[in-house]
Amino acid sequence: MRTAYSVETVRTAERELMDRLPDGVLMQRAAAGLAAACADLLRRRGRVYGARVVLLVGSGDNGGDALYAGARLARRGAGVTAVLLAAGRAHEGGLAALSGAGGRVVEHPSDTSAPFDVLAAADLVVDGITGIGGRGGLRPDAVPLARAVHESDAVVVAVDLPSGVEADSGEVVGEALRADVTLTFGTYKPAHLIDPAREYAGAVGLVDIGLGAVLPPVAELEALQHADVARLLPVPTGESDKYRRGVVGVVAGSARYPGAAVLAVAGALHGGAGAVRYVGPAGDAVIARFPETLVHAGPPAKAGRVQAWVVGPGLGEEPGVRDALASDVPVLVDADGLRGLNAKVVRARKAPTLLTPHAGEAAALLEVPREEVESARLTAVRELAARYGATVLLKGSTTLVADPDTALPVRVNPTGTPWLATAGSGDVLSGLTGSLLAAGLGARDAGSVGAYLHGLAARSAARGAPVSAEDVGAALRVAWRDVSEEA
Ligand SMILES: NC(=O)C1=CN([C@@H]2O[C@H](COP(=O)(O)OP(=O)(O)OC[C@H]3O[C@@H](n4cnc5c(N)ncnc54)[C@H](O)[C@@H]3O)[C@@H](O)[C@H]2O)[C@@H](O)CC1
Ligand SMILES: [K+]
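Above: query sequence and potassium ion SMILES. Below: predicted holo structure tokens.
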């Protein structure tokens, strides 16, 4: 499990740890880890001795980390130049260490082109403009420097966070530094796991500064890894028959959109339930593709017992949502089922409800513009879970799963791929996730395991080429096997 903590929690833990340690120890630990990683990167491209390293240094401790790491690299023979974005406010101890080690300093802005000249010639740039203390994106002065960095061939290493991203939300306001590698300290922050910031961070490495001992046991965010998912996968025992493994009911598709029913059923057949019951007008299309499906014209209330319902994909104006919500089993509501969804009805349910909107549907439910959801996904998913008293899976480049119990960490799916942005892939996800619900997983686990397998399946089906939703459905078995083999 990869976990992330908010800035406030990190600051509290850091204070506690600092009280127990001599001054400056934490920063030295951070700088040592940072310098070691930079030296590794330089060695991979040549060697440390004689390499040209540029430090972008802001006014806070993030710049201090960069300066101390720069001093360590200078002592190993690198040519290190610090570009001070706030001359006069740069970390004093760090500056002294760098000068003592033979590093140079230039100021920005300045009358000369010196900062841009050193950047153009750099082998490695260390971004220490802002870390967890940064607010409101890169300042105007920093923007031309960031552009020069992006145009250079240097490998870019961000200190703690790529400067300009919002640590707690993963938002990027205006421009931010794009890093190849980010070294973070003590724990991941939400921005390392959530888009759009995650993309700016590149490969993220964690430097242990001893913070683990003072962080609270429950994180604000968590990302499942293979082993976590493997532990959650429902596995039939010798006692299982198809009914004990769970029956998932799929209320999807319409005369106009029969394909959505087929894709949702394809997902459901790969989610571990023992049987899939399809309810709706697209039974013929479903049977033609998946003869093992139990089909029923509806309504859901008359279709027979299921252990979970999936309602919504391609449903159009077809009824069925109300029936499913009136049942006493877990219900996953997706797509058309989310339109006009009544929060009171959802809140009153005794069994779990799992809503699976994409950003547009989430925006409609929250009555805000879509861009607001896209730029602040974490806030949106938490707000929806609270408002509906339901588990919410917000689909997107990083899918998030929030539980109505706010004490539980929001889950971030780490397996996403841009290839998943393809018509019908959401239908496969809802079928798959509903099947996991029917097989006995809780809503939060079903949502996060469903998103994980779905992302893996898309990656294995795509391998660098476009995929269809049907390909994703067909690759779910491979994803399941990959995960369980690694356990
Ligand atoms: N607190 C600790 O125990 C440790 C902190 N460390 C480092 O310290 C960082 C946090 O240091 P700080 O709290 O000093 O904060 P930062 O260095 O992240 O940034 C705060 C400074 O930047 C300015 N600033 C804010 N937004 C800005 C923007 N958009 N553009 C330009 N300047 C902006 C502020 O006025 C302030 O001077 C961490 O990210 C990490 O790199 C590490 O040394 C490890 C230990
Ligand atoms: K930074």
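The chain is about 40% helix and 15% strand.
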